[in-house]
Each structure stands twice: as C-alpha cells, then as structure tokens.
Amino acid sequence: MFHVSFNAKAIRLMSLTATASVSVLLSACGGGTGSAQYSIDSNGNLTSATASTKLADGATQTTTVSTAPATATGSTSTSTVTGTTTTAGTTPTTGTTTGTTTGTTTGTTTSPTTTTTTGSTSTTTSPTTTSAMPYGQTGTNWAMTFSDEFTGTALNTARWNDTIWYETSNATKNYAVSNGSLKIWPQRDATGKFFNRTIDTDGKYYQTYGFFEIEAKLPIGKGTWPAFWLFNHIGTRRPEIDIMEAYAGGGPASGWSDANFHPTAYAPTVWIDAGRLAGTKTILTSDLSAAFHKYAVKWEASKQTFYFDGREVFSIAVTMPDTMYVMLDLWYGSASGQPDSTTPTGSGNSYEINYVRAWKAS
Question: Buried-most residue among 49, 101, 181, 264 (CB within 10 A)?
Fold first, then answer.
C-alpha cells in the first residue's frame, strides 16, 4: 500500500490562524499524481478534505476523509503544499493543495471509512479494496488468485513451506518476515556448512497459466544462487519455469557478476522436463543487489513471456500444460560456485522479496 500524509505544519502556514493538526491521507494503488481540496473554518480548523488520484493505469480514484486523524502504516512521504489563503469575517478559509506521489503498489489498497453530514443527514461510505494489477500490463483483464505482501511478523504457514518436499527443514533459522518483506540470507548451520533454503507453496497453492510476479533485491557473494520459479513433481516428470535465477558467485569472467560478486545478470529458463531444456536467455542488468526489481512471467498455453521491471526480455513458444506451484529459494552452486569464508552471512545480505502475486486472465 502506498500512501501520502500532507504535512499539517505546512497547512497551518497557509492560514492566518489555522491550528489544525489533521492528517489528510491520500491512498493510491501504484504510482500516480494527486491533488486534494480542503476547507478551514474561521478558527483555522480543517473541516473537510477530498483527494483525487490519477493512478498509474490512467484510472482516477477519489477519497473523502473526515477530520479524525488518519493512522497508516508503511512508506510515508510528505507533499509540498502550495496556494494562497484569505480570511474575511466568519467566511471559511479555503485552499488547494497539490502533490505528486510515486511508489510501489503492494497488493491491495483499502480506502478509509468516511462519513459525510449534510444538515441532519449522515452518509457513511464503507472501505473499498482495489487489487493490484500486473506491473506494466495492459489489454488483459486479470483476476488476482494469490498474494502475499509479507506485512506480518512470521511466514504464513497456511501458504508456505520452508523446505523442498524431499528434504527436512534445517533447524537453523535463515529467513524472516519483517518490515514488509520476506528475507532469506546465507548462513551456516550447526555443522558449519551453508545450507539451501526453499520457501514454496507445494501442496498449498497451484495454478496453470496466468501472470506471476515478485519484487525483490538479490544477495551478493560466492555461491549465492537465488531463484523465483514455478515447478511441480508429477510422478517422474519435472516441468519447470524459472522466472529468475542469478549467480553472483560466478565473477566477471562468467558474465553473471562483477569483481565484487554482485549479481549483474539473471536468466529466465523453461524446462519441459528434467534434462529437456526448452530455452533460456541471460539478461544483462545493473547490480541486482543495489535495488528492488520486478521479475515476472506471463504463462500462456503455448507461450511464456518474461518481464523485467515491466519490460519484455524473453519469450518462448512451448506448451506447458501442467499445474505448478511457486518457489522462492536461496541455494548454492551451479554457475555461482560454492560459498566460502568471503560470502557475507546474516540478514544484511538477504534475498529480499517485497511481495509475491499471481493472477489469471478473467
């Protein structure tokens, strides 16, 4: 959820006598531009406010809030307030505020409950919830089927496992849900060895076709091999769609990372079955550990299209009809080599995921 609080101090500066301490909450699903109109009475108190936001997809959202202070959680920025204010006798003071908001949409945005009173009539508007849409996608109606925004303090075990089906969960804790994200980091267990960690929906959530997206920041160091993929183990078959795999430990000669073992490339890959590669492509990027990026796939009956920050980077025409589940993992090896004493451990070097979302065409 992205929201903006207008600075009450800045509002007071616009009035000759205003002492309002009301926060105006402007909620938007995704980045966009917004404006708000407010009224201040002769005592300088803010009496009403209406906010309109043009969303990133071109739609417009309007919210009216009461003068009760708004409480919100998450990222907050303060808009600059501009305008003029006049006061004459008991005529209410009015003004206009303008601001620009940008940010990351996380799951669903719920508008506050508002009450409007005209004379003796009072009208209450219940909260409305708007589902986030796949980033950068237009022309298709999508219905959200799965979303975890990691807003709690623990992994939701009704949705996720913390180990792959053929292993038992390592007792050493190297993952956490905190501050709005899931974090998985390199760590040695009680035996002194680095160990793989898999977070998946096996047995809990499956889907065939649709749009799958995460927003994530990747770890650095020898051996680190983070991934986001769709998979299933059906008898002896292993259909697999790798949306993102990165190999920071490969070093500059490998084409996967720089000299400091920061990931500077990743690959989407499709496997029809174990050992039956349909196609893959290495995507060269900036340092993927320096900022969050969106990794996504649109999985159709006979085609898979991969996206990086909303931009198409790879497409392959192959039939993949099996239902699959979601996997997030931090493993070691492959093109990344093996971790060693130089590999940073601890939560400060996490594969950090802000959200996981999935949709089906509706």
Answer: 49
Alpha carbons 358 and 216: distance in angstroms, whole number: 15
Q: Are strands 76-79 and 2-6 parallel, antiparallel or unpaired?
A: parallel
Angstrom distance (rounded) from CA 86 to CA 81: 16
Cβ atoms < 10 Å from Cβ of 128: 12
Specify the residue for token string 């949409």: 105
Q: Which amino acid does the sequence have at 297?
A: V
Nearest Cα residue to 195 out of 221, 165, 223: 223
Spatial neighbors of 85 by CB under 8 A, at least 6 apart, are 14, 15, 16, 18, 40, 93, 94, 95
Cβ neighbours of 170 (radius 10 Å): 17
Closest alpha carbon to 306 in 140, 135, 148: 135
Q: Match 């649709």 to its residue by tokens.
A: 210
CA angle 124, 129, 132 (to 5 degrees): 155
Q: 260: which 2 tokens?
A: 């400091």
| Sign for the pseudo-dihedral over CA of 287, 146, 242, 150 | positive
C-alpha 93/C-alpha 45 separation (Å) is 9
Output Rg (C-alpha) for the chain, integer angstroms.
24
Hey, what's the torsion of the CAs at 188, 148, 29, 67, to 10 degrees?
A: -100
SS3 262: coil
What is the Cα–Cα distance from 64 to 115, expressed in whole angstroms? 8
Q: 351: which residues sit within 8 A by CB, 6+ positions away?
A: 183, 184, 185, 216, 217, 218, 219, 224, 226, 328, 330
Report how far apart, in Å, the C-alpha atoms of 62 and of each of 25, 116, 128, 246, 298 are.
Answer: 11, 14, 11, 41, 31
213: nearest Cα among 286, 106, 320, 330: 106
pLDDT, one tens digit per residue, over 119-144 is 544 444 444 344 689 999 998 999 99
Tell me the torsion sign for CA atoms 291, 303, 241, 281: negative
If DSSP codes are grouped into helix, strand and coil, which group holds residue 27? strand
Q: Which residues contact 191 (CB under 8 A, 6 or more apart)?
A: none
Q: Where are the alpha helices (DSSP H) in 110-197?
A: none
pTM of the predicted model as reported, rounded to 2 decimal places: 0.67
Other Cβ atoms closer than 10 A to 12: 17
